[in-house]
Amino acid sequence: MGRSKKIPLRKCVVTKEMKAKQQLIRVVRNKEGEVFVDETGKMNGRGAYVSKDLDIIEKAKSQDILSRQLNTKVDEMIYEELKRFAGDKG
To answer: Cβ contacts of residue 68 below 8 Å, gap of 6+?
Structure first.
C-alpha cells in the first residue's frame, strides 16, 4: 500500500480553479502594506495565488484582481515579476 502524499491545493484568484501549489505563484501583502512575490510560499501576511500562466497574469493585471484580493494597490513591478516566474517554467 503506497502512501501517496497529499498535494496541497490552492485557489487561483483569477480562474478560481484549485491547483497544486507548484502550479501557482503566491503574492503576499505584509502588515506594513508592502506587496511581494513570495517564492517560498511561507512569508507572513495576506496571500493570493495566481497560476503560472502568462495569459492569466495578464488578466489579473488588466482587471487589477490582486489589488482587490490584497486590499492594496499592487504595483506594476509585481506583475512583471510574476511574468518572469511564469516565463521560466523550468
So the answer is: none
pTM for this entry: 0.88
Distance CA 41, CA 71 (A): 19
Distance in angstroms (rounded) separating the CA atoms of residues 1 and 83: 41
d(CA 88, CA 90) in angstroms, rounded, equals 5
What domains can be seen in the chain, in order of their start residue? Answer: 9-87 (3.30.1230.10)
Q: Count the Cβ atoms, other than its own, within 10 Å of residue 85.
A: 14
Question: pLDDT of 34-66, one tens digit each?
Answer: 999 998 889 999 999 999 999 999 999 999 999
- Provide the edge-to-edge strand list for the sheet that holds 35-38: 35-38, 24-29, 46-51
Half-sphere exposure of 4 (CA within 13 A, CB side): 3
